[in-house]
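ERR on first pass: missing label on line 2. Operator R.T. fixed the label and resubmitted. Corrected input:
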Amino acid sequence: MPRTVITGGAGFIGSHLCDHFLAAGHEVLCIDNLLTGSRDNVAHLEGRPGFRFVLHDVTQFIEVEGPVDNVLHFASPASPADFERLPIQILKVGAHGTHNALGLAKAKRARFLLASTSEVYGDPEVNPQPETYLGRVNPIGIRGVYDEAKRFAEAITMAYRRVHKLETRIVRIFNTFGERMQLDDGRALPNFATQALRGEPLTIYGDGSQTRSFGYVADLVDGLDRLLHSDVWEPVNIGNPEEVTLLEVAREVLELTGSKSELVYRPLPPGDPKVRRPDITRARDLLGWAPRVSRRAGFERTIADFRRRLEAIG
Ligand code: UDP
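pass 2 clean. output:
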């Protein structure tokens, strides 16, 4: 039975990884300090054979007894709202947290998978973004704390690969959505879904003409599984290449919720990328991966989950 450590395992993506690898027969150690993750995300796994939750901040030394086969490093706040709320924690988990997670993988001779991000491309001058694009990041901007933390994380991962001959994998995750995103996460879809279901106005930042490409979490998990089990050490984009304006996203959410909420316009946060779309040629060619769930089908499932949770809190 492979033993897999998932840092940030109680977060949105981390908890779906816990589900996936447990179902695949791994023993899963879910490590999380619950800064942005939640025990609710893994409550259904507690007591299940092979699953263990460890409350720990990975910016501190990570102690794990026994053998480890895989370290999946997913711990980090990741919403742009967190870039203002938790800038120092983001830099620390990207730097010290990644260093500790790599140290654990090195000590156990485990395979290491880094959750990187499309934010390493910054506000891009090329669209779509291939992995060979080196990015346009402002280190002193509000988003710099996340972008630079993840760029550092990629650099130290490559250093461990070169110096310690560690087996490493790097995924650059594009906008991903699905069940268990925090209701108050602050990202576009959680905001729009919560606002629409509560009958509150949907907040469009800027004029809503900026684009993103939204991928459903189950497709991401499939791509991550393929990447982990491949021999591809170069960074791989995983995301849905279907690009859409934020205004269209707001209208789709209104339609799917049946909400009569109006749209209100708010200032565009500084450094907000104008376009974002993954070039997934590498994932297609090297992993045989492509997204299977349409944005609409994914939105329907996610909105149903948001509706349930909002009703539960009244
Ligand atoms: N956005 C918006 N309204 C919101 C939240 C976000 O219009 O209530 C916009 C935001 O300015 C950005 C896009 O939606 O252009 C996606 O934002 P998100 O926070 O989801 O993540 P990002 O892709 O910027 O990292």
